Amino acid sequence: MKVATVLAYEFGYRQQFAANLSADVAIFYNQYADMRSAMLGTQQLAFAPAAHLIQDIIPDNSIKARTSGVEVALDWYPLTWWRIQPSYSFLRLTATSKSGDPISVNNAKNINASDPQHQLSLRSSLSLSDRQQFDLWLRYVSRLGDKDSPLGVPAYISLDLRYAWRPTRDLEVSLVGQNLLDHSHPEFVPGLLPSQQLELQRGMYVKAKWQF
Asked: Higher-confidence residue: 200 or 192?
């Protein structure tokens, strides 16, 4: 098999509006060639231990794809102790089969359903004091695939919170909550090999970090 290749184009721009406000914009376009796939091979009829049909599946590089999109991010300090970082990304992904083989066509369809088109993110960091910090991360991810597709994943909104305290200069203790808006949600369904769909669950943990 060949090694897949990508030809990437990207343009970025940064603007510093003020000492406490800046923006970044990136536009990209990528062309992918010789991506991994497979095709149907020969069929054989076998009679032992019982009559059955053997279908060969041959790996190949029959998929090509292109992606394009834009990413926008702001970095804002409304107060000296409060930082806000909103961002948005848009992605258009198109994968096609060069061979027209049924397996290759289906693999291209799965690739097209593998990435969200829209993502929104909002990060907030509050320095409550020299020894306390409170962080928030709110994000939205749009649907993967078609509504009725077995690889489809509904859109979701997720929230992470973190509170950190430094009792000494070298020790930090933090309490973190992840995926707090729902009990669990799926984020991806593998399409190459059948496997059980997993969901990310709500979770909390305590972390201690000592630097010396």
From this structure: 200
